[in-house]
Amino acid sequence: MPHSPPAVCLLSGGLDSATTLAIAREQGFAVHALSIRYGQRHAVELQAAQRVAQALGAQAHLVSELDLRAFGGSALTADIDVPKDRDEQAMAAGIPVTYVPARNTVFLSLALAWAETLGAQDLFIGVNAVDYSGYPDCRPEFIRAFETMAGLATKAGVEGAPLRVHTPLIDLSKADIIRRGTALGVDYGLTVSCYDPDAEGRPCGHCDSCQLRARGFAEAGLPDPALQQ
Questions:
Q1: What pTM value is reported for the model?
Q2: At what angle do helices 208-220 and 174-183 cross, to 10 degrees?
Q3: Contact predicate 85/206, CB 8 Å
Q4: Domains parsed from the chain with CATH numbers
Q5: Which of 20, 40, 65, 146 is the most interior residue, by most CB within 10 Å?
Q6: Neighbours of 173 (CB within 10 A)
Q7: Cα separation of 201 and 48, whole Å?
Q8: In whole angstroms, what is the distance from residue 48 CA to residue 37 CA?
Q9: DSSP 3-state assignment of 225?
């Protein structure tokens, strides 16, 4: 039986990261899932990440602690209202207040550190440049720049084993992502996308993330299993 190379996949517990993990497994990687408890108001997503990692057969699932509330600056880490009921034009108008400063840079750096200890050359992240809601750290040019930095900043890179950052969802619409994951057997009923869930973890249905998710399922012609529970 051929050896499965290790890879680290950032896993938030949301729809995109669950699909990314499934794709990494399909490509033959032994996936090590990394989730971050960073002080996010929607920490219920970490329970979802645990469910997803188990269901999709991750080799390991690590939850790292990093409190970004110390810096604030985002509706996800500070006492700032999460925008609700915005139309597509409003969502596209600049960088939203749900942007967490440098989050993907920090998260990919942690994934890079774990990858080095595992002897892994591959990182997976579910960033998307189509339905990216204005986040600058979801763009292809950011990912390429991070790869360049990783090659310069790591022992593995200096010794000729450069790291690859895989972004299999980068050019897909939300509907295409849902179709892809459904074909791979992803149970989206296990995932959480909402930025502002209630105390029981139920989605608000009104934040940007909830609206993008709802539109994706509608365009894919599929029911959202998370709403059937």
A1: 0.95
A2: 60
A3: yes
A4: 6-227 (3.40.50.620)
A5: 20
A6: 17
A7: 10
A8: 12
A9: helix
